[in-house]
Amino acid sequence: MSDNSFLVLFLGPVREYLADEDVSEILVNGPSAVYVERKGRLEKTPAVFPSEASLRAAATNIAKSVGRMLDEANPRLDARLPDGSRVHAVIPPLSRVGTAIAIRKFKKDTLDAGKLLSFGSVSEAGLAIVSAMVRLHKNLMVSGATSSGKTSVLNVLSSFIPAHERILVLEDASELQLQQEHVLPFETRKADKFGKGEVTIRDLLHSALRLRPDRIVVGEIRGGEALDLLQALNTGHAGSMSTIHANSPLDCLRRLETCALLSGIDIPLAALRAQVASAVQGVVHTARLSDGSRKIVAVSEVLPLENGEYRTSDLVRWRTDRVAPDGKVEGSFELVNPPTFAPEAALAGIPLPRN
Ligand SMILES: Nc1ncnc2c1ncn2[C@@H]1O[C@H](COP(=O)(O)OP(=O)(O)OP(=O)(O)O)[C@@H](O)[C@H]1O
Ligand SMILES: [Mg+2]
Fold this sequence. Notes:
Blueprint: H1 5-8, H2 15-19, E1 23-29, E2 34-38, E3 41-45, H3 52-65, E4 76-80, E5 86-90, E6 100-104, H4 113-118, H5 124-135, E7 140-144, H6 150-158, E8 167-171, E9 183-187, H7 201-209, E10 215-221, H8 225-234, E11 241-245, H9 249-261, H10 269-279, E12 282-288, E13 294-306, E14 309-323, E15 329-335, H11 342-347
Parallel strand pairs: 7-11, 7-12, 8-9, 8-10, 10-11
Antiparallel strand pairs: 1-2, 1-6, 2-3, 4-5, 5-6, 12-13, 13-14, 14-15
Helix pairs in contact: 7-8, 8-9, 8-10, 9-10
Bound molecules: adenosine-5'-triphosphate (ATP) and magnesium ion.
């Protein structure tokens, strides 16, 4: 079965976009409005479905084909298709315009460091700094908004892990493609229709710690697993990495704190903050700019708490100079503060760019 034939079976009206390599997402807002994302920008398309009934049937069939239900009792579907594409669907009356579907097409060629450079998503110096942080076993978080490129950047960061290390990868839906030889990928499992058998990132983290990892890579932190991750990082699993939804490097630390509180384990705020600040050494922040381009807009180091407050120091920052008449965002990456780990890097023989 070719990559998209599976979806084409159900989604005839958007066939053209399923086949179009430039289209990364297809967004169906009821039967008569279909948008696509092409090169980072949303466009409305002329595509329509014959009726809400046929769109709803398409969504139900997608659900059935992966052994799930989409009906009154289960009005939301979160599924990964056999070809790796991700589908989220919500049916009426929750969705008020008719069945809503978002398809994130699976990209076979995940981005590598070379592509990030050629797309202008990061500078050579920025790449040298993040690569040094990975090789020096700093614990890193990749932060950013939805679809800003976090997972892609995490994939690139993981590529800097030396080949001899044992890497455990924990994900909700497998997206990362580590090229090293000694990699153990794990995937969570949703509860079955009886509500049984769920295996969460927290569960997998507990197993991971008993499987002698050198590094732990967690696809995304969304909730209470943050506390388990913080504890793992603070007990000697240096060099681990994950992603989190946040608006800035500082916000990333606050979000980690909030997620850790969701674990339900009672821990005094001061102690939790101390854990966050010592567990995470660096934040790589991603953003999608107004012209649709995605960039690493900041690489920051986490400093010790001051009066109980988080502090970060930007090592690299994107600075926008102007938005050209055609909408293109122009600017440059600048080196801001020197890394505190410069002496450590020198000892390890790892080159850092000079300010
Ligand atoms: N630097 C980049 N340049 C161009 N396209 C990119 C870049 N980074 C990511 N993309 C594309 O943007 C889309 C979203 O990327 P990605 O999945 O990495 O984002 P994300 O922040 O992890 O999203 P989510 O919030 O859904 O987890 C993908 O189609 C990916 O190929
Ligand atoms: Mg992601």
